[in-house]
Design brief:
The structure is a homotetramer of 282-residue chains.
Chain A lengths: L19 E2 L5 E2 L5 E5 L6 H13 L4 E3 L17 H13 L3 E5 L6 H5 L4 E4 L7 H8 L5 E4 L6 H13 L5 E5 L17 H8 L4 E3 L1 H5 L2 H13 L4 E5 L17 H17 L12
Parallel strand pairs in A: 3-4, 3-10, 4-5, 5-6, 6-7, 7-8, 8-9, 9-10
Antiparallel strand pairs in A: 1-2
Helix pairs in contact in A: 1-2, 1-9, 4-5, 8-9
Chain lengths: 282, 282, 282, 282
C-alpha cells in the first residue's frame, strides 16, 4: 500500500488544482463559485421546468434533481426513474444548465450517464465500492458526497477509488455529518472546506440543505461555506416546498434562492472570488 | 406509508419469533446460541481448512470468511473472489458447517449465493438498497449488519426492504458503532440486543471482533452479549493472527476460541440457554 | 509531565488490584460483585426506608440516593439537600448499608462527607477539577462517574487528580455515553469494563439505569456488565417509579430488583464470581 | 416547570435583542462584530503586554487570557492564578481593552471578578450549576461556552440558570463539539449561530481556535462565523506559538491576526455589519 502522500488524491500529485468542467462551461475549482440548485426529487415536467427557469435566472449553472431516490423507508417515494431523468435533461437544456443526478445501482450507471453531465454518489453509498468503480468508468465527472459518518481520510480514500480507475474529475461535497444533537438534521462541517484545500487538489462543494435540514439556515450556512472557501454550493429549491414529495422542510423557494444568490455574490467578492452573473448561467 | 406498528419487521406481525434455519441444521432464534467463526478473509485452502476444523471442534456451526472485501483503501487486500468462495464452501462441507459470506455487488449475488448458505450485507452497505433488494431475492437467509452510524430505526427499515421483497429470513448483527473515543475501533452497543428483542421478531447476532477491534476484549464482550440475550455470536478466528491479511489485531487463535466457547456455555446456561455441544456442530 | 505508564492510575503502579472498602464491610474490587441500589432522589423518609429495606433484603450492600441533584433545567426538582442526606444515612444504618451520594459544590464536600461513606462525582462534573481536589481530601472513597462524552484517557486523568491528592480509593463508574441514536438515553459502553481492567488497578462499576434510561433494559444490561467482569452494579430502585420525582422511567420496582439480583448471582457464578448472600448485606 | 417558550432565555421574552456591554465600550449583539483575542494562558508580563498591544492595534477590543486553566492532566500547566489576573488586567488597561477570563471554582468568583470585566464559564463547566449560580451573582457579564457535547437545549438551559439568578448579561460561545473524526480537535458547529439567533435574544460568539485546534483553519472559520452572523469572534494569539505553555498549535501570530482582522472587515461589510476601526478598540 503506498504511503498517503503518494495517493493520487493528495495535494502534490497534481501540479495545480484540478478543474472539473461540464459541457455547458461550468468549471469547478476556478475563481467562480458554482451554484447548483434544483429540487430534491424530479416530480413532474412542470415542476422541474419552473425550478430550472428560476434558478438559472438567479445564477445557477447546474441543475440538480433526483430520479432514483435512496430512502430510509421502502414505503417512501422512490423517484420517477428514467422518466425523471428525461424531464431533468430537457429542462436543463432549455436553460443551458448542466445536470447532476444520483445513481444508486452499478447496473444503472450507463443509463443515467446518458442523461447526466455529472454522476452523484450519495452519502449512503460513499463506500459502495462496486458503484464507485462503475461510475468512475462512465466518462463523466463524479460528485462524491461525504458519508454521513465518514472521516476525512475515508472520504479521500473513496475518491482514490475513482481516481485510480482513471477518472480524475471528482468534486467532493460536504453535506453534514451525524452528531449527538438532533436540533438540526445533520451537523454541517464547514471546516472541511479549508482542510480539504490543504489535503487535496480536488474542488469542494457544500450542501447546506441536507447539512442542516432547515430552510431558514440554508442562506447563512451558504454564506459561511463561501466565506470559508467553498468552490460550489448546492441548494435544494422547489416551487412549492410545502407540497414537495421529499425534503420540503429544507427547500428554498425560487425567490429565497434569488435573494441568497445576491448575498453570495457579495461574500464571494469580499474574499476575492465571484459568482456567475445573474441570468448568464454559463 | 404504513405506521411503524404495521411494518413487517415489527414484533406483532409474526405470531412468534422468527427462526432462521440453514441447511446444516443451524437455527437462529431458538434456545441454542449459535456460534459463527472464521477468518476475516479467506487466504488459502490450508488457512480456511485449519480454521474450520478448529472452530467446528469448539462448537461453531457456521463458518465465516470474506472473499469480496470492502476495504477503505483501494490499495488494501480485496479478497480472493470466486476462488475464495470455493475454498470456503469446501472447508465448511468437510465439517458440516454452514457458510456465511459478504456480497458487495448486486451483479455478484447469484454467484455468491451459489456457494453460501447465508448472504452477509456489510456495515457499509446497510443502506445500499439495490443490493438489499437483489440479495433478498436470492432465496437465502440474509445477515444484515448494522451500519456503523445507523440508528435502530434505520436498521429496521433496511430489514424491511428485505422482508417486503418476500424474504423473511433475516438475522440482525450488531458490530459496533462509531463514537468519539478511538480507544476501541468501534463502540459495541450491547443494549440493542434486548431492545431489538422488544421491537422485532428477528434473531439478533453480536460481532465483538469488529465491535471492539481488540482480540483481548472479544471474550468478555462475547460473554456480555450472551448474558444480554444474543441469539448468536460471530467471532473472527485465524490460525496465525499476527500474519493475517486483514483484521489480525482483533482475531482470536483457535485455542482462544475454544476457551471462549466453554465460557459461553457457562453463561448461556446461567440464563437458561445453551450452546451446541462441542464437536457436534449441527 | 510523566509518561502515561508512570501515572498513578495506570496498572503496574499498584502491586495488586486496589480494593476499596466501606465501613459496613463492602469491598469493591474483590471476588464479590457489589450491588448498589436506591432511588434517583431521596424524596421522603418513608420512600427511602421502604427502598432500603427492600434492596438490602435483595442483596444490595450500598444505598444510593441523591440529595443535591444536578438538573439540566433550573426549574426541575433540585433535591432535599441536607435533610435528604440525613434521611438517607438513617435508612442505610437501619439496614447496615453503606451510603453513596453525589456532591456538586466544593463548599458542600465536608458537610456531605459527614453523612456519606462514599462521595459520588457525577457525569457533568468529571472534569470539575476544583470539586475533584476538594472531594479527594475529605478522606472518603470516591465514586467517579464517566463524563457522558469523556474518552477513557480523560476519565483516567480525572481519577489521577484524585490519586495525586493522596486519596487512593477510587471506583470508576460507566454510565453510558452520548451517541447519535436517541432510541436509548445513553449508549452503555460495556467494553470499558475489560478495557479498564487492563489499564488500571481501580475497581469498575456499571450503572445500567442511566446507561440506558429504560427500566426494561436494566436487567439484561446488568447481566451483561457482570459477564464482562464488572466489580459492581448500580441500579435505580423506587417503590413507585410512576410517581418518582426524577428518573422514574429507568427505575426498577423492589420486586424487579430482587429478580435481577437472583439472576446476577447465576451469571456471576458462571464466570467464577459471586454476589453477597440475600439478606446479608455485609 | 414552565414551558420552553416561557423560559427567560427564549426569544420573545426580551422586547429586543440583548446588548451586553463592557466598561470599555465594547458591545456584544449590536452592529459591530466584536473581536476578542489573546493567549490561551497568561505566561508573563511581557507576553501578555506584547499580545495586547498587537491585537488592540488590529481591532480587538477584548483581551482574553487564562490564569486558572482546566487541564485534562493534573501534570499540565495550571496557570499563574491571581498573579496572572493582575498581569492581564494591567495589559488590558494600557490598551483600553476589556478583560475576559475563566473562573473554575465558585470560591474564586469574587476574586476573579475583581480583575475581569467578563467571567468565562468553560466548556467543561457548562453544567457546573454551583459555579453558574455563583458567577451569575458577581455582577459581571458572563461568557458561557458550549459544553463540548452539549445539545443546544442543554446550553440554553445552562444560560437560564444565570438569567434566573438575576444576571441578564450572557454571551453564548460556540467552541466546537466532539465528533467521530479526530482530524480536527473539535467540530466547529457554525450552524448554531443562525439557529441561536432564532431561539434566543442573547449574543453569539464563535471560537474557531478551540473549534478546530489548527491555526491554519482559524482564518477561514472566522470568516465563516461572521458570514453566518456571529456577533463576536474569539481568537487565540501568541507572540511565539511554537513555545506557548498551552494551545500553541491553534494560536495565531500577531501578524496573522492582523491579516485576519482585515479580511473579517470585508466579510462583515458584505453582510451589512462592521468590525471596529483598526487601532480604535473601543
Amino acid at each position: 500500500m503506498p504511503p498517503p502522500d503518494r495517493h493520487l488524491v493528495r495535494r502534490g500529485t497534481a501540479a495545480q488544482r484540478t478543474l472539473v468542467k461540464l459541457p455547458n462551461g461550468t468549471t469547478f475549482g476556478g475563481d467562480a463559485v458554482v451554484l447548483c440548485a434544483g429540487p430534491c426529487s424530479v416530480e413532474s415536467g412542470e415542476q422541474i421546468e419552473t425550478t430550472a427557469a428560476a434558478v438559472a435566472a438567479a445564477g445557477a449553472s447546474v441543475l440538480r434533481g433526483g430520479a432514483f431516490k435512496p430512502r430510509t423507508s421502502p414505503y417512501a417515494f422512490q423517484g420517477l426513474g428514467r422518466n425523471g431523468l428525461s424531464l431533468l435533461r430537457s429542462a436543463a437544456d432549455r436553460h443551458r444548465m448542466g445536470v447532476v443526478t444520483e445513481v444508486l445501482d452499478p447496473r444503472d450507471v450507463e443509463m443515467v450517464a446518458g442523461f447526466a453531465d455529472m454522476l452523484q454518489i450519495g452519502t449512503r453509498n460513499m463506500q459502495n465500492f462496486a458503484l464507485l468503480r462503475e461510475a468512475a468508468m462512465a466518462g463523466k465527472p463524479i460528485l462524491l458526497k461525504r458519508g454521513f459518518a465518514a472521516t476525512v481520510d475515508e472520504w479521500l480514500m473513496a475518491a482514490e477509488y475513482i481516481l485510480i480507475a482513471g477518472n480524475p474529475n471528482v468534486v467532493l461535497c460536504e453535506r453534514g455529518v451525524r452528531s449527538f444533537d438532533s436540533t438540526t438534521r445533520n451537523l454541517l462541517d464547514v471546516s472541511v472546506v479549508p482542510l480539504l484545500h490543504e489535503m487535496t487538489h480536488l474542488p469542494v462543494m457544500v450542501d447546506p440543505s441536507h447539512g442542516t435540514g432547515v430552510a431558514r439556515l440554508v442562506e447563512p450556512m451558504s454564506l459561511a461555506a463561501v466565506a470559508a472557501g467553498a468552490d460550489a454550493v448546492m441548494v435544494e429549491v422547489h416551487p412549492d416546498p410545502a407540497h414537495a414529495a421529499s425534503d420540503g422542510p429544507q427547500s428554498l423557494t425560487p425567490e429565497q434562492f434569488a435573494s441568497l444568490s445576491r448575498k453570495l455574490a457579495e461574500v464571494a467578492s469580499a474574499i476575492g472570488r465571484r459568482v456567475p452573473e445573474l441570468g448568464i448561467a454559463v
